[in-house]
Amino acid sequence: MHGGRSTEGVRDRAPHFFLSYAPVPSPVGDVDAARPEADKDVREFYADLSRAVAGASGPFPSSSLGYLGAADRAGPETARALHRCRSFVPLITRRYFTDVYCGRQWYAYTHRAPRGALIPALWTPVPTTARPVPVDLGLPVPERPVTPVRVAEDAQVRYAKGGLYGLRQYYDHPEYYDQCVRRIAQCVVQAVRRAPEPTPDETEFTDLDTVPDAFAASSWHPLGIAVLAPDVHHLPPDRSDTKYGREPRDWQPFSDGYATPLAERTAELARNLGFATEIHTYDEAEPVFLGEREARSPWVLILDPWILHDRTALDRLRAFDARDLPWVTVLTPLADDPQTRNAREELAALLRSALPRRLSSGRAIQRGAAAGIESSEAFNSRFTELADSAAQQYLNRPLRSSPRPPASVKRPHAAPGGPVAPAPDEADPQGDQEAQP
User: Which side of the chain, N or C, has fewer Cβ within a 10 Å radius?
Assistant: First the structure.
């Protein structure tokens, strides 16, 4: 299905679909040379989709099947196509949600009357936190009574993991890409048959420069960062104080030239990923982890295994581990000082005792992150992947009851900034249920 020619503009008729995509930026000083080659795959997909729509359209005219507004993204021809197209096919990439013209095209289409069908097509994977508007990235399915074009199960899995671009590179089964293209075309044709042809009206805008960006005003996703580590005043016997500060959140296990505590650097990294972060001690986060307080965000727990020399801290972490909390990611940095290197086996045994479930189940990257991370580079990489995974688990988790501990049960608390000590339990009136996605 690759290759071929198809119409890229429309003047008189309403296109069956408008393909919206974010062009690859040209290198500085080379405005025109690199873009055609960089977007070659997108143009070939547009041709493939146009051909598939023509094949599935039957008696419908094919003189203006699609519109690809790449050359004049804000001009009157693009605006006219947005007003009159029967369906809108955003080609989803991470860059798509940061492209101002994609945001304007999205806004113009979704705020017009009549509104046609929006049919997202996944080009490359996009993390949950990079999607500023709700969008279903599953392979589109036509509504009943239409029988969907058959798409192999493995093709659907590969589409979810790598998008259409990934399928184009999968040469062992080129039919997978073709199946997905035909499925998208089927949805386009159904939209054409169900919707009347839009007609221009007096309020039609003539360009997109005055249209709001649908993605500009989106809110960031919340993320809690909890730190379980000693402070300089509450260290295990004979533990060097070079990695610690006045509070647990001052802990800096890596000697990589940065004076900023790891928790603050993690928060900055999270903000770059689209999270709105708050840093807490483990004491502050524990009521959420134990179901005593409503969970309002995914969490990352940063753990110093040295604190597990304290028996009460060990028991508290076991209670945390016993709960099934896939929306909490555990990262265990291993300090790069000689004392920690010499105590690796002892610290590993403490971790196995404190986190038996986390270290024996789940994905390999999750188990490895909880077992120990040896450098700041590895920490950044693990955090980037696992924070988004926690966000997806949080958004997808079901509503379920979480019974509070009986009032007679006393939960150990930590002294401010230090190791744990017994203290009376504080019940939370919102602790009966976890939040809905």
Answer: C
Place of tokens 């800096």: 252
Q: Cα torsion for 357, 363, 367, 370, to the nearest 10°?
A: -90
Q: What is the pLDDT of residue 54?
A: 93
Q: Which residues pair with 18 in a beta bridge?
A: 67, 88
Q: Decide if pLDDT at 72 tops 80.
A: no
Q: What angle do CA 113, 119, 123 make, to 5 degrees?
A: 140
User: Which two three-digit tokens encode residue 275?
Assistant: 């999270």
CB 329 within 8 A of CB 369: yes
For residue 113, the model assigns a pLDDT of 76
pLDDT value at position 74? 78
* Cα 105 off chain centre by: 22
- Look up tokens 């017009």; give the residue: 112
The string of pLDDT tens digits covering residues 345-367 is 999 999 999 999 999 998 999 99
Measured CA to CA, the distance from residue 248 to residue 281 in angstroms comes to 7
CA distance linking residue 334 with residue 340, whole number of Å: 7
- What's the rounded mean pLDDT across residues 421-428? 33
Tokens of 246: 């006045």
Asked if pLDDT for residue 244 goes beyond 60, the answer is: yes
Amino acid in the structure at residue 28: V
